[in-house]
Design brief:
about 100 residues, mainly alpha, 6 helices
C-alpha cells in the first residue's frame, strides 16, 4: 500500500477535520467517474487515517515505504490541463520548449 499521508497530501500531525477536508478536496478534484483507480487509493488512504486511533496505528505498525508514483504526484500533481501563459505559448510556436 502506498503512503496514505502522501496520497491525501497531509502531514502526519493533521487532525480529524484536516484529514476529512483533504479527502473531500481530493475526491472533488478526482471523482470516481474520472479515475476509478485513483479514487480507490484516496478512499483506502482516508480509511487508514480517518480517526486519531487509525493514524496512531498507522504510525506504530505500518513500515511500508512510499511508492514512487505517490512521491511524483506530490512533486507534480496531475490535474486539469491548464492554459499556457504567453511566454510558453510563444516558445512553443517558435519551436522551443
Amino acid at each position: 500500500m502506498s503512503d496514505p499521508y502522501l496520497t491525501l497530501g497531509i502531514t502526519p500531525d493533521a487532525d480529524d477535520d484536516a484529514v476529512h477536508a483533504a479527502y473531500l478536496a481530493a475526491v472533488k478534484a478526482c471523482p470516481p467517474e474520472r479515475d476509478a483507480r485513483r479514487f480507490e487509493s484516496l478512499r483506502a488512504a482516508y480509511e487508514a487515517l480517518r480517526t486519531r486511533r487509525a493514524r496512531l496505528a498507522q504510525a506504530l505498525f505500518d513500515q511500508t515505504p512510499p511508492m514512487l508514483a505517490d512521491i511524483l504526484d506530490q512533486a507534480e500533481p496531475v490535474g486539469a490541463p491548464r492554459r499556457p501563459d504567453r511566454e510558453q505559448f510563444n516558445a512553443l510556436l517558435r519551436g522551443g520548449a
